[in-house]
Amino acid sequence: MVKLPRQLSPDQGAALGVAFVTSALALGSCFGLSFSDVMGGPDLKSVIEDVGEDRIPEDVRYEALRSIQDHERALEGDWIAIWGGSATSAYLSIQLARLAGLKVAVIVDQARHGHWLSADSHARPDLLIDNSDPDRAVNVLAATIGDILHFGIDTNGKDSASFLLKALQQRRRRRNSSSSSSSNSKKSPHYSPSPPPTPPIPRARTERRAHLIGLAGLPKQDEHDDDDDDGKDLQMHSVPLKLFHEVPEVGRVLCEWMEVLLQSGKLRAPRILGNHIGLADVNGALDRMRNGEIRGGKLVVTV
């Protein structure tokens, strides 16, 4: 249970819970991002490991304990790409990622959501890419930050997740091509007059795999692999939401931290785009969602 600050309405509070837990576990467990420098937040990876393997539900045990290695964990300054930035889970993921020092690229319908996202001081992305042409969006993402992009979250579905997967795979292929070119140049008898390069990044950090979370489904990786080695270079994730409900240590630290973030104003609740009253209004609310009327915010039904 989380105590809401006075400035937050019950409607806003109702729209926060599941999305916050999903975002925090996606970043903190799947990507290993520590929130210890954000208002005393948790290092979820350490919290989960300290619980002990026997108390982690078996069906999420691999995801929670072994899906990302220590040297691959997201660190301040790393880039993350979020496809579908208008979803509530994306809106909160952007905020939490920025608070922890990540740089955020958002791929979204720019005509509908570009303005309000860019104007939001809590969720303004470092890079905004229009998704109206998905192939072009992949190329833009790959051309701008592809070489340093290791983390992606998709909030829309398998189709858009497959495009984000392509962007992450292009990063690896360019890196391999560059390595091959570098190897060939070493065999040449000709030497460049250029000054020596700056010291390389430590090997452990350069050999990180890419990591992809699909909040609404993941593509089948073998359908998109042109190179058998791609699977070894990319880890797909499903957020282990069960940890929040079945591991008290995880649920407690997330609730306590969420309350601190809300009280301090560091976390902004999603926009409420409509409120329906009573069970009889549920079908009408669902129709509005199916018709695409509710985008970039939440619809609340008060019962």
List the defining traits of the structure above.
alpha/beta; Rossmann fold; 2 domains; 12 helices
Could you walk me through the main structural features you see in this protein, from its secondary elements to its overall organization?
By secondary structure, the chain is an alpha/beta fold. The chain folds into two domains: 10-180 and 207-270, Rossmann fold (3-Layer(aba) Sandwich); 272-303, no CATH class. It is 44% helix and 14% strand. The protein is built from twelve helices and eight strands. It has a six-stranded parallel β-sheet, sandwiched between helices. Helix 6 links the parallel strand 2 and strand 3 (127-130). The two termini are 19 Å apart. Residues 179-183 and 185-199 have low confidence and may be disordered.
Unreliably modeled segments: 179-183, 185-199
Helix count? 12
Strand content: 5-15%
Q: What coarse outline follows from CA principal-axis ratios? A: globular
Distance between the termini: 19 Å
- CATH topology of the largest domain, which one? Rossmann fold
Number of strands: 8
Look at the structure and name the CATH superfamily of the largest domain: NAD(P)-binding Rossmann-like Domain
Strand order of the largest sheet: 3-2-1-4-5-6
Judged by helices, strands and strand pairing, the structural class is alpha/beta
Give the C-alpha Rg: 21 Å
Query: What is the ordering of alpha helices and beta strands?
Result: HHHHEHEHEHEHHEEHHEHE
Number of domains: 2
CATH class value of the largest domain: Alpha Beta
Query: What's the average pLDDT?
Result: 84
The biggest sheet amounts to: 6 strands, parallel
What's the architecture of the largest domain in CATH terms?
3-Layer(aba) Sandwich
Region (Disordered): 169-204
InterPro entries: Lipid_raft_assoc_Zn_ADH (IPR052585), NAD(P)-bd_dom_sf (IPR036291)
Organism: Beauveria brongniartii RCEF 3172
Biased composition (Pro residues): 192-202
